[in-house]
Design a protein that fits this description.
single chain; 102 residues; mainly alpha
């Protein structure tokens, strides 16, 4: 009868620690690494300059932050951009059946 049981958490098991992809870890590492380098190079006690130095780590953390129903904020932004930018033709592709171009 072609009845398939697909577990709901099958996508989450493909993620690192159940939350992150390799791209997420690269973005987060680059943001934190840049912030650490800036903290070592720039010597200042001004709060505004310190907040500017912390911006790469804060932005990278925000982008990889997990949110419900999406993998993370970065994926949500990519999906919104793709929805409004590209053609609205959706071809379903899954484990059971691959969509065909018509």
């Amino acid at each position: 009868m072609n009845n398939y049981l697909i577990p709901a958490n099958s996508k989450k098991s493909q993620l690192i620690l159940g939350f992150f992809t390799l791209t997420d870890l690269i973005i987060f590492s680059a943001g934190v690494g840049l912030t650490l380098i800036l903290l070592l190079i720039v010597e200042s006690a001004k709060i505004t300059l310190m907040l500017l130095i912390l911006c790469p780590a804060l932005i990278a953390s925000f982008l990889v932050l997990p949110i419900p129903n999406y993998h993370n904020v970065l994926q949500f932004i990519i999906n919104v951009y793709a929805f409004y930018k590209g053609r609205r033709q959706y071809i379903w592709k899954g484990w059971c059946l691959d969509g065909e171009d018509e």
